[in-house]
Specification:
Length: 411
């Protein structure tokens, strides 16, 4: 009898212990994500591995690596490097297509026009029938590991809040997750048109379309104006970035993905963050409505959350982190759309993703086409869905406008 009583006591005691411990394991208090322009890991991977993956990100592709035959750059860092690898640049890409007044269609070969080729005879060009042409800047990818971990609930809640305040909410689209089972989709968040939801899918797409390197996720070479390029100009068998057991979707694609997931978020300017003008501008940013779409704070999903069709489990270094991207990562029509349709259907032709403002202090050219060079001009280019907010901005005094811009320059 005594033995049975002891066993029951021990079992009950163990159950109580589990009930006490489990909440401690899973109820994690969110902490602020690390920031910095310092080429240091955010903790997703070791510093030694991060340095190796960054070196891969920075390295130049050559013909022997499979460069081209049509391409835009020879390294990821050509388009993402100010002030450190993964950040912004002054580089734009050329987009093109056709609009008949009702429907947008791609130019033969797609909307991206590759600016470079390994031989003059296969140079891609804008064709006479292409009546939609625009520039699209490369994007900052620092902190994108945290963006990948934003929960679906953020998008739906923010969309409803915008609907209540502006009468229209951002457009949410779901896009394929390339590394997952066929038919798997997720809420998009990467690219000017929200082309991707997964950094692995994004890395493979960029490797093909910007450098011409094929991989298991993107195994087919691009054309030139829709014409298949002769094999003589392709110097390596496809897929050029072949998969391995460790990186089944490509050795380089895997390195690029790890690098992006390991980057810190862009750092604000601590030297001016608490000055009177910046603090006043920060308050005005919220008061006039900028923060309705340029959302200041977002908390990532908890560590251990499985996303991307079961292909990625958010680690502790990424999960439960508070980020300050100043974006809702949804599509909006603010009058500056490039007229191109990608994943979102015809209704997204004039819409662009809300650009994150973190790191804006490192940008000397603004908007998706980089054609604005002052903060005031960039703000004044907003209308459409942003009309109420822009009217509020126009009604500010010169001093208040300068304070608002001082805050933007501190981000």
């Amino acid at each position: 009898m005594a033995t049975k009583w002891v066993k029951r006591f021990l079992i009950s005691d163990a159950i109580v212990l589990v009930l006490l411990v489990v909440p401690l394991v899973y109820a994690v208090t969110p902490t602020t994500a690390p920031t910095g322009f310092d080429n240091l890991t955010n903790g997703f991977e070791s510093q030694a591995q991060f340095d190796l993956d960054r070196a891969n990100f920075d390295s130049r592709e050559e013909l022997a690596d499979g460069l081209g035959p049509v391409y835009n750059a020879q390294a990821c860092a050509e388009c993402h490097q100010n002030p450190v690898s993964g950040a912004i640049s002054q580089i734009t890409e050329l987009r093109k297509g056709r609009f008949d007044g009702f429907t947008f269609t791609d130019s033969p070969g797609g909307s991206l026009n590759n600016d470079r080729a390994v031989d003059a005879s296969i140079q891609e060009r804008v064709l006479g029938a292409d009546n939609v042409v625009d520039l699209r800047s490369s994007l900052n990818i620092l902190g994108d590991g945290f963006v990948e971990a934003i929960p679906d609930s953020f998008f739906t809640t923010t969309q409803a809040n915008q609907q209540a305040q502006l009468g229209v909410g951002g457009t949410i689209i779901r896009v394929p997750v390339g590394e997952a089972a066929a038919g798997t989709t997720r809420i998009a968040r990467f690219g000017w048109k929200n082309q991707h939801a997964s950094l692995l899918s994004f890395a493979a797409d960029a490797y093909l379309n910007e450098m011409g390197i094929t991989s298991p996720l993107q195994p087919k070479e691009n054309t030139t104006n829709g014409v298949v390029i002769p094999a003589q100009f392709d110097h390596k068998a496809d897929p050029e970035d072949a998969g391995t057991t460790a990186d089944p979707f490509g050795t380089d694609v895997g390195a690029f993905t790890r690098f992006m997931r390991s980057t810190k978020a862009p750092a604000p300017d601590a030297a001016v963050a608490n000055t009177s003008d910046v603090l006043a501008g920060k308050s005005l940013f919220t008061q006039i409505g900028c923060s309705i779409c340029h959302v200041a704070s977002i908390t990532t999903s908890p560590g251990g959350t499985v996303i991307n069709g079961g292909k990625y489990t958010i680690p502790a270094a990424i999960g439960d982190k508070i980020i300050h991207p100043y974006s809702d990562f949804m599509l909006h029509d603010v009058g500056t759309g490039d007229g191109i349709v990608q994943n979102g259907g015809q209704g997204t032709r004039t819409k662009m993703r809300t650009p994150p403002l973190w790191g804006l202090r490192t940008h000397d050219r603004l908007m998706h086409d980089l054609l604005s060079v002052t903060r005031d001009d960039a703000i004044n280019r907003h209308f459409g869905e942003a009309n109420p907010v822009i009217n509020n901005y126009l009604n500010l005094s010169v001093t208040q406008k300068n304070q608002l811009i001082a805050f933007i320059n501190s981000i």
